[in-house]
Amino acid sequence: MKKHFFLLLSLVSVFCSCTDHEDDGKYANFLVAKPLKISLSEFEDSGDIIAPKPIEESGKIYAYNNYIFVNDKYKGVHVIDNKNPENPIKIAFIKIAGNVDISVKDNYLYADSLRDLLVFNIANKDNIKLVNRLKNVLQDNIIWPMADIYEWENATTEDEVLVGWEVVTERRLKEEVQLMFEDVALNNTADARNTGQGGSLARFKIVEDYLYAVDNHNINVFNIQNLENPLDLDDIYAGFDIETIFNRDNHLFLGSKSGMYIYDITNPQTPTFVSEFQHGTACDPVVVDGDYAYVTLRGGNTCGATESGLYIVDISTITDPVLTKQYPLDGPYGLGIKGNTLFICDGESGLKVYDKTDVDKLKEINHFKDIVAFDVIPKENNLLMVGDNILYQYKYLKNNISLLSSLNLD
Fold first, then answer.
1. Is residue 223 in a domain?
2. What is the pTM of this model?
3. How many Cβ atoms sit within 10 Å of the Cβ of residue 28?
4. Is residue 195 a part of any domain in this protein?
5. Which domain holds residue 35?
6. CA distance 130 to 44
7. Mean pLDDT of the 124-138 span
8. CA dist., res. 184 & res. 164, Å (int)
9. What is the pLDDT of residues 273-292, one digit of tens each?
10. Residue 93's pLDDT is what?
């Protein structure tokens, strides 16, 4: 397999000099997953708190008391003082290698660092401290994209750590790609307390004295009665391509690339499967309000073949979720609900705001265009939204919202 892989790399450069006539149908476009990696020393140095720095790629957003935490994908977390929402201020950066998620309870922040779970005491925002590190408790925490080719041979060396994948489109010789596929096939035969609030894209969720962290296949369960010293409990296998987690009452709602899975946490240390709602392959966050689950599906590219849209699923019978209505969207990511208002981050199409009083007839009440919308948190007094390295805050009006402030994180 190795010789075929490196031959493919050389063919890419050769092809660049070919004309359309020379192509003669021998080449095709393939989705190629290229490794994103960091040095082993950088991974082992996770937990440092440094002065504010420009963001590289904004990820998920989390709100706790008067502070906002914005993930810098695979790098760490930006800490923002939001006592005055009209003038938020960056105050620190927590370096966490491979980080994509956090959750907070009673001034203890839990963060993933690839396989490890880190615990920070954030009671004093001017003196944040790493107080614990649980090693190798998140076994399948790297997010795997859908691609035709994975550049396995170039993934890491002994001095590097894989944190994720970047997917690009490349033109490859079809015959050589087929040979590589054949080699692969042969080789494979052998809460009520003081917790914060995350968006719909979250993979961490605190419910009372338990932290639930989903990876690609499992629900990782931690007892956090002792906030500084979490107890790692047995993982619960939940399927494939798990992406997000949402909680309502005694149920967890997991979004995956193939459907929504519902788990009962009446016994909090052992979530039990209740039911599932299947859809075509797509990236899939979910939020729940009343008798309905709202699921955004982002198709195309690395997320699958399903057309992008909003699925509204009737969960009044929790053991038998049923699709009620489907609405088209362009390329949605996170979503949130405040009362009868539904907020959808529709990627490059901006933030869309709907009146969901009648789920069969959603009414668009606002559309903020010319922005990139990624993740959103509807708070009691204002709406938080992040996208394209900018933190937006909106003020609720009687039947609408208006922009309150924007903070460029660069």
1. no
2. 0.83
3. 12
4. yes
5. 1-199
6. 13
7. 94
8. 20
9. 999 998 766 667 899 999 99
10. 97
